[in-house]
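Dissemination and training. As part of the outreach component of the grant, students in the summer workshop were shown how a complex can be specified as a set of sequence lines and then modelled as a single object. The example used during the hands-on session is reproduced here so that future cohorts can follow it. Participants entered these lines:
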Amino acid sequence: MATTTVVPGDAHDLDAVRARYENVDHAYHEQRDNRLLGILLFLVSDVILFTMFIFAYIYLRNSVPNWPPIVEGGHQLPRFDVNFAAFNSIVLFGSGATMHFAMESWKHLNRPAFFRWLIATIVLGIGFLAGQAYEYSSLAISWAGSTMGATFFTLTGMHGFHVFAGVVFLCILGFQARAGVYTESKYFGLTAGTLYWHFVDVIWVALFFLFYLW
Amino acid sequence: MAASAGTFAHDVEDHIHPEPEGFIRKYIFSIDHKVIAFQYFITGMVFFAIAGLLAELIRAQLLKPEGAIMSNAAYNGVYSLHGTAMVWMVIIPLVTGALGNFIMPLQIGARDVAFPWLNMVSFWIFPVAGAILFASFLVGAPDAGWTEYPPISLQGPPGTTLWCVAIFLIGISSTLTGLNFMVTVAKMRAPGMTWTRMPLFTWATFATALINMVATVALSGALLALFLERVYGVPFYDPARGGSPILWQHMFWFYSHPAVYIMILPAFGVISEVLPVFARKPIFGYRLIAFSSMAIAILGFAVWAHHMFTSGMPPWLQLPFMVMTFLIGIPTGVKIFSWLATLWGGRLHFSTAMLYAMGFLVTFSFGGITGIFLAAVPADLHEHGTYFVVAHFHYVIGGGSVMGFLAAVFFWFPKATGRLLDERMGKIGFWLFFIGLNGTFFPMHFLGLFGMPRRYATYVEFAKTLPHGVAQFWNVFESIMSLGMVAATALLFFNVVWSLKWGKPSGMNPWGARTLEWTISSPPPYYNFKKIPTVLGLPYNFDQPMPYRNLDNEQDPIPVPTTLAPPRTPVPA
Amino acid sequence: MAQVSRPAKMSMGPFFWTVTAVLTFWNIASAIWIAVTPLDYLLPASSLNVTDRGADIDFLFRFMSIFGNAIITYVTGYVIYFAIAFRRRRDEPANSVGVQIHDAPVLEFWWTLLPTLLVIALAVMSTRVWYLVQYGTGAPAFAVEVIGHQFNYEFRYPGLEGSVYDEMHLPAGRPVRVLVSSADVLHSFWVPEFRLKADTVPGLVQNLNFTPQVPGTYVIECTEFCGLNHSEMQARLVVDPPAKFEAWLDAQKAKAKSAATGAATVDLAAGNAGAGKLLFAQKCAACHSVGGFDQKLVGPGLGKIFVDKAHPKLVDGDAPTKANVAKIIENGYNGALGAMPSAQQNGLTGKDVANVDAYLASLK
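and obtained this result:
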């Protein structure tokens, strides 16, 4: 590999570099680029966390001949109720759609619409959590009673915690937006919130399939 | 020249924040990557001293086959905390938090990392996690090693729960640091610094950050499950309740194997920086070394079950892991040969940093070879769980990560403080450490192959299988040799403290090095670079002017070491 | 542009080929030595070929040692040689530089290819031995179960009611399958001279297939941390000539039969406290102190077991008489408070139980 010798005054390098820095408020965009990569990497690491528990669930499920497993006492645990979960899933996916519309409204400079869609998202998110709470209370299996309970409650519990954190995050974003923190060209916080909320939806797709359909 | 360079809106003081004021903002809750690096260094060295003391307790216990100084219960806690602390509270924070934080932003021409406040939070989790870990001694230390396999870890003393908490916390710190570094390297390099113009320590830090960010979360999952099972009885690992002990091993090693690459890749980066400077010639095979770091980072995720060959995995699963483990030895071997070729034809200066780097080549290669011995499944059936394994990992971690770290300390201390460490103390320390390391860990290979299991507080039965007194002799020999490493560490601490006050002033570039950190003052100003320089090429040609434009300070175009003794006879011009 | 001082036209270096030749000669010589010398300096009883699998594994070690030694010799040798040959001389100018090369593609190709080929060869050889260990060379003559406990091994033989503790016997010259499992936590079953190891995993059975070839007494070591007395968890493995093994097995079967038909009543009054004290130290002291009840290790202190007013009942609810204490020592305990091995698991005969009982009674 030959040494790259660049003679001082070489036009090629200067132009390429200058073009990259053409942006008027490049300071903001640099920051935004960094933070966007940061939130994406954070979500990647969060996916790994869920993946580990999903691996544990698949491993434990495959290591016994029966699923739902047969517990002490000789009886087999019941399967989960798909119907209620499907309804709750629609609530959650609906909140993903409303969040998308909220962002679109913001980008199209429609602040009132943004707030309507944001509140709808938050309400649906809380609705999903309420649905989960109802399901938890009506389930016959316990967290510590079997590996089925262990994996189900831990995974859906972690997911629920993420939804709860997301609801809090969205509320904060709402208050910030009202206080004028974000403008029509600088709204990275809202982008981050939307990405996180969609991530929470994607995780639920996996969990719904793994626990209710499989 | 200056006029045309000034056309960038970018390279003037407008992006420099005012200097932080007050002792707290400047030194305690600082967001300056250099201060944070120093904080990691101090905290890490304190934990190194504690974990090293625990090691000496282990060596004292093994002076007699029936155990010389403590009960089994105490010993089990001592060795568990020695291992746990060394991995998570010493090596990983030092090579990522201290070295990565200090050097990488300077090498890429940045003023700080991407998320300085997050950097500060990452640091402050560290001493808290360490305190929680050592506090476990007060409630009954965790006793099942740094690997805490269930079911035994489900029964373990209360300290095992604290262990889960402490490691979970330091895991958060690691993950955030990894994320921070990845964004910094990806987005904040100086203009002109393409990926293939990055210094090799930065490549190493990037590869390490990738592993840090992806793998550590996996451990958090495992720890969370262990915690839930211990505290709330949620069954993941207890076979009596449908769980699987092997599940823990998969989850744990999926992180902990990449973790060893977290520990070694920065050391590889250090060697790649130190050797060219003290050989006065380019690093050999720059691209191979850069890309092999990434290859090792990625392949490192595919070998974890080589820690589990005897554990009861389905037999067919052993083969792909064996093959992958063999394969990952190839890029590592290529690096060793490239480093050797870097030495060839050089004009070698034997500074302390260079001695550690050259010693690294020997001891790390040796550890790598014993790794191949362990990778072959049938051989591993004999070696697993014995002192052979203990010898292997101490050669690659002690003879690899620690030696690389010490080389870095001697190399970059002048940049951080403006003073050189005392070279004479450094060299004595090197020989003490090198001889101590080899003396302590070399005989362990044989003890292991002849039947001495690890994690044994007493070894009476094993001693009976060898001629009388032989087992004890070698254990006593190892314990005595380990004092060499103790002495070297004490000398290093003294050297650091002494040199802070009385070390020779180093100037900007005492070693005649060529990466960007050597173009600014020692220590650097809080903002690092007043003007962000433009990078025109690789920093490894020692017969050419430095490949930068728009530097803050006047430089010799071709820097030379300023630490050399003047020639005895005058040199003709 | 500043001038640099370069070395005059350089070959590979002073005496480079000589040093290379010396290192290569040394490697070839040591390779031959490793290949032909008995490996007993590295692996226990290697030249005896204690098991057939062990011999296969030792061959693998030879191969790895030859090439490992070669690599280490070259690396260390060149580091030392370069340190001498290419050191900067005292009086060289400060700006002297080395040879400014960046790579050498041909060299890099070979030093990537050769280790890859080596590794492939090693993988192929290892796979062959792996297969033999997992599946054996044919049907085994019989299967023995090894069950790990905290902190001893239980052995079960086909056709034998009950289990054997402390000493496992195998016949020489017959292929055997050892089925390894655990009753509580992870342990491991390892005989260094056999080279074979398998972790004992509760809920799982692992196979080891081999033929022991050399009669003798060997040590079984536990190599997976299993609790307080992990370091003291060993057992004996005796390889007998086939006839002797059959005799031993018959004796075990006879013993099991007699134990089943009417437990021999043990005379507790004849218990020897002195002998009991020794036994206590060997078998009980890991979990019980001889202090008061509250001086707990794993179980309570037993020093006042017969006289403690604060604890008027034993763990199973009986009154603390000599007979009841002997019963607990005989049967062990498994319940809410923990697990204590039985006399059989501890390797205690009826007489031993009486001795320990007498010793406890002698403590006041």
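Chain B has one domain: 34-549. Students were then asked to discuss how this feature might be tested experimentally.
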